[in-house]
Amino acid sequence: MLTERSWHQRRVERLLREHPVVGILGPRQTGKTTLAHAVADYRGGSVTVFDLEDPRHVRRLQEPTLELEPLRGLVVIDEIQRRPELFPILRVLADRPRTPARFLVLGSASPELLRQGSESLAGRVAFHELTPFDVDEVGADRLARLWFRGGFPRSFLAKSERAAEDWRREFIRTFLERDLAALGASLPSPALDRFWRMLAHWHGQVWNASEFARSFAVSHTTVTRYVDLLAGAFVVRQLRPWFENLGKRLVKSPKVYIADSGLLHTLLGVGTPAQLRVHPKTGASWEGFLLAQVVARLHAHPDECWFYATHGGAELDLLVVAGGQRRGFEFKLTDNPTVTASMRVALDDLKLDSLDVIHAGRDTYPLAHGIRAVAAASLVTALKPVR
């Protein structure tokens, strides 16, 4: 549901003015190609498109330098993760005088998974992550649908819950059978399916590699690598623990979340909103969903997002350190949130500038000094982006 001149489009346009190469990264089926076409249409001029899933385009790039060097205007290369060796060639082309062409590359893998190639473009490339739909794009009146179906466009916009569920099941199957193997996964797809479903039951908890390793009879480094692969493909979120030395014993392992709430519900076998309301993971689902909404609304970079937990029991669901501020967030599936001792400890320990308790009710109001209750449906108006 990308609207004309959305924030995503404006940012990509700005990055193209500042960098010879720009990457739009994100999970499959989030609208990266649609966004690229919108950017190209707005810019005007010459546009050349290569889709690395199209055999004809792959053949054209058998001699990439000969094919790309004469091009002018905007050059779009889709599914760049299939040919990361193109990055060194783009570096040479980006360094030409007067920059005759700008390159817009689209990929379903993070810069970390593309690092071998993208390192050669240091100082020349900027990345923009396109996430699934968020409440800012679909509207607060569709918050419940967004939570249950998730933000992938074809799931969110499906004509029925059954159609949305069918799409998510097919996405999971295709992702496991094709995409993960292309990114370096060596386990057969049934084992990967089991692993991802186990991870869904771990959603919102601190990662314990040893426990997963015992279940799969492999080393803890192996299971951690697979979590990293899923995170690198944007279907799992790893939230790092806050590391500042506060004189307390801090939790040092990341939390893991299934990045899209709709995929989470399908992996958990939750088929209807009514089933979700009574499922043991409902609260964790709400937490992960709203965490993603807040991060998207703030336009916060993953490196600016943390959670806080001590072995003494003090916790904070989300800490965003950006724009010269420390902003804390708690997520409660209730319409009547209250201030807890843990919130007061986090407010004091972390020297928070604000602490917002995002809840399921309708009203936004102060709870205590520095703490307010924020209705989930009011996120767009209640929160200002950090950039």
Keywords:
Rossmann fold, 20% strand, 18 helices, alpha/beta, 9-stranded mixed β-sheet, 387 residues, 2 domains
Give an overview of the whole structure.
This protein has 387 residues and is an alpha/beta fold. The protein is built from 18 helices and 14 strands. The protein has helices at 7-18, 32-43, 55-60, 64-68, 86-94, 115-118, 135-138, 143-149, 153-156, 161-182, 189-201, 209-216, 220-232, 261-267, 273-277, 282-298, 341-349, 379-382; strands spanning 21-25, 47-51, 73-78, 101-107, 125-129, 205-206, 236-241, 255-258, 305-309, 315-322, 325-332, 354-359, 365-368, 371-375. Strands 6-8-7-9-10-11-12-14-13 form a 9-stranded mixed sheet, with helices on both faces. The chain is globular and about 65 Å long. It starts with 6 loop residues before the first helix and ends in a 5-residue tail after the last helix. The mean pLDDT is 92.
Give the mean pLDDT: 92
Number of domains: 2
Number of DSSP E strands: 14
Give the strand order, joined by hyphens, for the main sheet.
6-8-7-9-10-11-12-14-13
Number of helices: 18
Instruction: Calculate Rg over CA atoms.
Output: 22 Å
In angstroms, what separates the terminal alpha carbons?
Answer: 22 Å
- SS-based class: alpha/beta
Strand content: 15-25%
Helix content: 40-55%
Unreliably modeled segments: none
- Give the biggest beta sheet: 9 strands, mixed
CA-based shape: globular
Oligomer: single chain
Question: What layout of secondary structure does this protein have?
Answer:
Blueprint: H1 7-18, E1 21-25, H2 32-43, E2 47-51, H3 55-60, H4 64-68, E3 73-78, H5 86-94, E4 101-107, H6 115-118, E5 125-129, H7 135-138, H8 143-149, H9 153-156, H10 161-182, H11 189-201, E6 205-206, H12 209-216, H13 220-232, E7 236-241, E8 255-258, H14 261-267, H15 273-277, H16 282-298, E9 305-309, E10 315-322, E11 325-332, H17 341-349, E12 354-359, E13 365-368, E14 371-375, H18 379-382
Helix pairs in contact: 1-2, 8-14, 10-11, 10-14, 12-13
